[in-house]
Amino acid sequence: MPKFESFDRRGYATLSPREGYRRWAPTYEATVKQDMDLRLLERVQTVPLARVERAADLGCGTGRTGRWLARRGVKRIDGVDLTPEMLERARASGVFERLELADVESTPLPAETYDLITTVLVDEHLAQLAPLYREAARIARPGAAYVVVGFHPFFIMQSGMPTHFDDAAGDPLAIETHVHLFSEHVQAALVAGFRLSEMHEQVIDEDWIAQKPKWAALRDVPVSFAIVWRRA
Question: What is the pTM of this model?
Answer without folding.
Answer: 0.97
